[in-house]
Amino acid sequence: MKIELIKLPYATDALSPVIGKQTVECHHGKHLQTYVNNLNNMIPGTKFENAALEVIVKESEGALFNNAGQVLNHNLYFTQFSPNGGGKPSGKLAAAIDASFGSFESFQGTFEAAGVALFGSGWVWLASDSRGALSIVKEPNAGNPATSGLKPLLGFDVWEHAYYLDFQNRRADHLKELWRIVDWKAVEARY
Ligand code: MN
Questions:
Q1: Is it true that the peptide bond before 17 is cis, omega within 30 degrees of 0?
Q2: For ligand 1, a single-atom ion, which residues have Cβ within 5 Å?
Q3: For the chain, which terminal residue's Cβ has fewer other Cβ atoms within 10 angstroms, N or C?
Q4: 3-state secondary structure of 4
Q5: Distance 138 CA to ligand 1 centre (A)
Q6: Phi-psi category of 91—alpha, beta or left, where left has phi over 0 and alpha has psi -120 to 50?
Q7: What is the whole-number distance in angstroms between the Cα of residue 45 and the centre of ligand 1?
Q8: Centre of ligand 1 from the C-alpha of residue 84, in Å
Q9: What pLDDT, on a 0 to 100 scale, did the predictor assign at position 148?
């Protein structure tokens, strides 16, 4: 099955100044497009020819996993933001965050710190298990909590390509700003 580049649910300049137009264009149109192209070139002739993306991520390894993981990661990433985002989650996700981390602000601080502490390239995720219990998961490179049987709810990309044009080396500042554009309705729908 051919993997398609997802369409952005907003204009490329809509997330500015948190994520600038040039970053969105390069990140979505070049980095993600390359992962999509690589994956489509690798799948033919493998057992994954008709597999869903999530299945490829869970069952592959090596270069195939790296590209499939990055397509899944970025599909989740780009669809969790909105120019009208920010604020706080509500409903059962808000209650679960309070129960797990004490408060939303405490969760934010722990999540940011995990992203800052991740050495090199990777992702920090809010994930839930099958019973709805939440955890913050640091994954190197193309990692996704789905490979551990968890459901990814929110993912911040800490590869430098995600923030270098806007924040240079200031990863912590970038992570702190991202809360302003998180579309909590989209994140809650994954929970
Ligand atoms: Mn990325």
A1: yes
A2: 157, 159, 162
A3: N
A4: coil
A5: 15
A6: left
A7: 27
A8: 22
A9: 96
The amino acid at residue 125 is W
C-alpha 27 – ligand 1 centre gap (Å): 6
CA of 77 to the centre of ligand 1 (A): 8
CATH homologous superfamily for the domain 21-78 = Fe,Mn superoxide dismutase (SOD) domain (1.10.287.990)
Tell how far the Cα of 99 is from the centroid of ligand 1, in angstroms. 30
**Can you say whether residue 94 is alpha, beta or left, with left for phi > 0 and alpha for psi between -120 and 50 degrees?**
alpha
- Please tell me the predicted confidence (pLDDT) of residue 1: 75
- The CATH superfamily label for domain 91-190 reads Iron/manganese superoxide dismutase, C-terminal domain (3.55.40.20)
| pTM to 2 decimal places | 0.97
Q: Which pair of structure tokens corresponds to residue 82?
A: 């909105």
Task: Kindly state the helix (H) or strand (E) to which residue 73 belongs, with its residue range.
Answer: helix 62-78
- Domain edges within the chain: 21-78, 91-190
pLDDT in tens, 64-105: 999 999 999 999 999 999 999 999 999 999 999 999 999 999
CA of 97 to the centre of ligand 1 (A): 25
